[in-house]
Amino acid sequence: MMTANRPDRRGSKRQLVSYTAAGLLSLLGTWSAATGHLTAYSTDSLCPDPVLQRLVTHSVQSGETIDSIATEYGLMPITLLALNPAISNGSLTAGTILKIPPFNGAAVAVPAGQTWQDLATRYGTRADVLFEVNGCPTTMPAQVFIPGVSWLLENASSAATTAEAATSNPLSTYPLTAEGQVIANYGWQTDPVRNELVFSSGITVETALGTAVVAAGRGTIAYVGTDATLGTLIVVNHQQGLQTRYAQILEPQISVGDQVQAGQQLAITTPHTEESSILYFEVRTNSNLGWVARDPGNYIPELAVR
Questions:
Q1: CATH number of domain containing 57
Q2: Domain range enclosing 48
């Protein structure tokens, strides 16, 4: 089953990607928000090799599936599909050689004249993160690795998603009965405890104690249960291939298969402090690559961080 060029099982396998950000950019050079460029002083010893130079290979064995291979390397199936177009139909043949990255994401071609900030805006990430994972190059490469799985295809753009949501959006309702504040945003951000860059597939909203959690739109309850990381989790499937997920909640009031209306109570928020509670909320879109996380603020304007 095992082939050469695989990562150490104790290392990059089965680990979620995170990057220590403290002080790195100040050592590398200066970032220009106006131009989207970073001027590198010296990258030989400060930056890791580009991710696209750290790919390993996997020879598919009889009986293996995309899911089993992804699990073996601690990845999501959509990462394998995006990085290996030959298996985009989901079919595997024994002997096929797959490219395996150290963490979730995929390679994309860079249009002429694009800056790191342009790419960050398009793919919903941070320019400094892209610069680092691609080896801190002095010039823009023709192809770069975009970490995360928040985009469907190479040519997808957050602008297109926003436009589609604005014209045809089954999610019409704020998911809480009381106003809240987004305290953890969607996308790449610094974990305040570990001081590391981490990717969040959703947002965390802080609100008043005992606030009811409501359906963001009409749909069908697809899941009610417990997640090892998120605690109690409710999943609602909506029209047009949309899905919402509600976690960090208590006292579910619905069951799998129930039809719910926009604004119908699903649960209550989990206490966070003596005076507040929280909700973790995701929006996902269905595709041949699976359920892909999207920025909730593109669908429910009140959740957008401005």
A1: 3.10.350.10
A2: 19-147
Domain boundary among 147, 167, 192: 147
Q: Work out how many domains the chain is built from and give that number.
A: 2
**Which run of H or E residues covers position 31?**
strand 29-32
Question: In this structure, are residues 221 and 267 in contact, taking their beta carbons and an 8 Å threshold?
Answer: no
104 belongs to a structural domain = yes
The verdict on 29 and 119 lying in the same domain is yes
- Tracing tokens 């979730």 back to the chain, one arrives at 104
- Whole-prediction pTM value? 0.54
Residue 163 counted as domain residue: no
Q: Is residue 156 part of a domain?
A: no
Pseudo-torsion of CA 228, 229, 232, 233, nearest 10°? -100
Q: How does pLDDT run along the chain (306 residues), one tens digit per residue?
A: 333 333 343 333 333 333 323 333 333 333 333 334 443 333 445 678 999 999 999 999 998 998 899 899 988 888 888 888 888 767 788 999 999 999 888 888 888 889 999 988 888 788 888 899 999 998 999 999 988 765 544 444 444 444 444 456 789 899 999 999 999 888 877 777 777 767 788 999 999 999 999 999 999 999 999 988 899 999 999 998 899 999 999 999 999 999 999 999 999 999 999 999 999 999 998 876 678 888 898 889 888 865
